[in-house]
């Protein structure tokens, strides 16, 4: 496999030769993007990471049923939004609601 931009060549076992990316250029782009985010974007912004973990059987069911996944993610989103609103000290009296706009 050869990148047309940087002429880097990589041996890909059992390849169909129709890949639309170069691992060398892709890795370089990924490293540059990560450096930009770490150096210029993320330090100035408060971050919170939320992780949703579901039992395997439920994961497979949701993968096959987009409507059910939409409902589950809606519940998760509303609960996180409610938590953030409560932590910010906002109340319904000040105009905050549990539902997204």
Report on this model:
50% of the residues lie in helices and 0% in strands. The protein has 101 residues and is mostly helical. Helix 2 (56-64) packs across helix 3.
Shape: flat
Arithmetic mean of pLDDT: 79
The count of DSSP E runs of length 2 or more, i.e. the number of strands, is 0
Low-confidence stretches: none
User: Rg to the nearest angstrom?
Assistant: 22 Å
Q: Approximately how much helix is present in the residues?
A: 40-55%
Order of helical and strand elements: HHH
How large a portion of the residues is in β-strands, by DSSP E?
under 5%
Q: Structural class, from helix and strand content?
A: mainly alpha
Number of helices: 3
Distance between the termini: 48 Å
- Number of structural units classed as domains: 2
User: How many strands, which pairing sense, and closed or not: the largest β-sheet?
Assistant: none
